[in-house]
Amino acid sequence: LDALSYGGTFDEMVVEREFFIPGSDPHGYLMGPIDMVGPARCIVYGPFLYLPVGDWVADLRFQLVENFSGNVLEVDVFHGEVLVSESFSLPAEGHFSASAHFDVHDPLEAVQLRLILREGAIEGTIDLEEGVLRRAE
């Protein structure tokens, strides 16, 4: 974002996991895998970035381990309201990515990407490895 402060632009930003907040600790930082055991809930949110007005794409990369009973994950983009939301069934294990296209209409409103478990889990971990925000082509 340094380029923006000098009147420049940027087209892509890698958002490391530490910029995200675990749903279980609103004052903490995401430092590794999240145990999915427990009730339906928001498991990760953030990074609370203020982006320039325009069309954007968010790519989230994550890994699942030992999710043998399956779960439904919702990924959404919140920018004053939910702009886009998609739910899908999670497999037992592997590396995955999810993408969302959205419009930033107010540069003074922070953008959040959220991962929400839509049902309780009895095992498994999810590891949000990174996010990438980029201008849409």
- Give the total of beta strands: 11
The low-confidence runs, each spanning 5 or more residues with pLDDT under 50, are none
Helix-strand topology string: HEEEEEEEEEEE
Mean pLDDT reading: 92
Structural class: mainly beta
Helix proportion of residues, in percent? under 10%
Structure description:
- Helices cover 3% and strands 55% of the residues.
- It has 137 residues and is an all-beta fold.
- It contains 1 helix and 11 strands.
- Strands 2, 4, 5, 7, 8 and 10 form a 6-stranded antiparallel sheet that branches. Strands 1, 3, 6, 9 and 11 form a 5-stranded antiparallel sheet that branches.
- It has one helix at 2-5; strands at 12-16, 21-22, 34-35, 41-45, 47-49, 54-65, 71-78, 82-90, 94-104, 111-117, 125-135.
Quick take:
By secondary structure, this protein is mainly β. The chain contains 1 helix and 11 strands.
